[in-house]
Amino acid sequence: MTARRKLTDAIAQREELSFVFGQAPPEKVAQLIQETQEQQIPCEKVVCSFTFVPDNKPVRHYYDPEELQQWALYDIKPNGIRSPLWLRPHPYYPGKFELVAGLRRFKAATILELKTVPGKVFDWDDRTAFQAAISENANRRDFSALEELDNTLRLLEIQLGYSTEEAVSLLYRMNNAAKGTTNQNVLVSEEAQYVQQVFDAFGKITWQSFVATRLPLLKKPPEILEKIRRGEVHYTKGILIASVKDSDRRQELLQKAIDTSLSVSEIKQQVQAIKQKESGNDSQNSSTIVHLQQRLSHTVQQAKKNRALWSNPAKTKKLEKLLEELQVLLET
Questions:
Q1: Which of 13, 162, 222, 328 is the most buried (most CB within 10 A)?
Q2: Under 8 Å between Cβ of 235 and 141
Q3: What is the dihedral of CA 78, 83, 88, 89, to 10 degrees?
Q4: Which domains does the chain have, with CATH numbers?
């Protein structure tokens, strides 16, 4: 693994990181805010490309369209955008600005067809911009569990130089070591220190709670997680739909929820109805299996006692063939 600076060292050497991580003295934070002048930025010059995010997606997954529309019309329109957007010079488009934080406000400005938005432009590199985006968004609204999962893993990937799979594996190894089920050397490793620093700086939960309550989300149906991440369905709705076992029924309900904007209560009702059907099918299947097991056991007992069966070469030959077919079923 390539050498990298500790987060504490980076924070000490970079004012931007000190501000983002919230560890600078209050007067220093105030000074940084005052030194960065607010300006009116033409909306046509704002680009929502998120090149500083590992997967080029915003740190927020979903904005409710109806709620956004109402907020734009009844708050932003009469009162204006009171908090400036955070931007940086776009790394690929000269004269343009890349949005770092304030996507919801920018969407509202687009709904209202505003010509300009208030903004502050910072000279941030990719890492600092990403950390700033997470910090600013987390301070405004709590992340959903999936947003917290994705953004924390992104931070760990950046800080450790790991892939997602490697970061997840490290967390599970640390968790097993903490439980005493494996060698505990990983808990005193350099990587474990980076993990602890990230959770100290950004996490509202411990890394142990993250492993227990967030990582299991990765086992949810991938098509559900993808729709949530693309902002097509709210996290709460998606997780409800994910509880449907039958993949066809789950996919059908997911698409219906997206196309017709089903409410949470409507989804709960449909999920409950599907589960009742599944439960009925499971009971029926279990009953069938038990009946087959009983028939097999009874038939074997009868065969053992049937002298005519064993004294008839033609029947024993058929029995041998049936046993071979049964053996094939067992092996496959």
A1: 162
A2: no
A3: 30
A4: 36-141 (3.90.1530.10), 142-219 (no CATH)
Q: What is the dihedral of CA 310, 315, 318, 320, to 10 degrees?
A: 10
Predicted confidence (pLDDT) per residue in 161-189, tens digit? 888 899 999 999 999 999 888 888 889 89
Distance CA 169, CA 152 (A): 14
Half-sphere exposure of 223 (CA within 13 A, CB side): 14
Could you give the CA distance from residue 190 to residue 160 in angstroms, rounded to a whole number? 10
Question: Which of 278, 232, 229 is CA-nearest to residue 257?
Answer: 232
Query: What residues form DSSP beta bridges with 121?
Result: 87
Exposed (0-12), middle (13-18) or buried (19+): which is 108, by Cβ within 10 Å?
Answer: buried
At 280, the pLDDT band (50, 70, 90 cuts) reads low
Type of residue found at 269: Q
Distance CA(39)–CA(121), nearest Å, equals: 8
